[in-house]
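Weekly structure sync, notes
Attendees: PL (lead), two postdocs, one rotation student
Agenda item 3: pending single-chain targets
PL asked that the sequence for the first pending target be pasted directly into the notes so everyone works from the same version. It is reproduced below exactly as submitted, 264 residues in total.
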Amino acid sequence: MPSPVELVQAIYPASMRPSLAIYLGRIMPAPLVNRLLSSLSPEVRQSLERKLVSVPLPIRTPIYEPGREPKYSYFITSGIASVVTEMDEGSVVEVGLLGREAVPGSLLMLGAQQGGNRCFMQVGGTGLRIGFSDLVQEFRRSPEVHARILQQVQYEAFTLTQLSACNRLHEVEERLARWILMVSDRISDDVLPITHEFLGQMLGTRRSTVSMSAAVLQRAGFIEYQYGQIRILDRPLLESAACQCYPMMKRLHSDLYADAVSLV
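Predicted structure, written out during the meeting:
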């Protein structure tokens, strides 16, 4: 029997799928592979796979909350998880963006508290769930898992540093272009199911400011925006409009686990 997504793909034209995907709280799936898992040797990967359960991760699914040890960890196989910092007055800014290269919350495995950070699914997708205590046990037992998790911690630290500087120094249009490209890279799609309100939260600016910046990029022919959806029309031009953080972040992303033989 075909899956719901296969039925959608068979019945609806491609132009209609993003809107329906938003309604379903998910995106059309990229290849369901996690880069961290695929970078492990077959023996280590098989040991982990016995403890993994495939689960849907709809939009806004909480991955971890500040100051709490999570019950589960998730190897993301499609979709995007956002790490955000929340201020006391309620303002929110994104400090991390994780896709199928990651298992969010890796810092917690070092015994750290997340402070004001929380993580949730920004673009719905799928993942492989494992008990947090089981993953911590593997982290302590397996030198290979230990090394990969530490690589991800380093990657998240570099991302945090770069995004903090970006949010402070670069114009909204540059940051918006950078953000669109980063999300597109992680979901392997040029259509992003995102609203202006959500973008404003992620970029730490007002919705009206994001709307004006998106309008500038749209008039230039870089993107097409409809409510709840952004489509990249000209990637090279959009890259030229992005701040210098994008090529740096793209390189960090592509070089992650470069010392391993990956299946992705």
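Discussion points:
- The beta strands are 53-57, 62-64, 72-86, 92-98, 117-131, 191-192, 223-226, 229-232.
- The chain has three domains: 1-25, 31-169, 172-242.
Action: rotation student to compare against the earlier draft before next sync.
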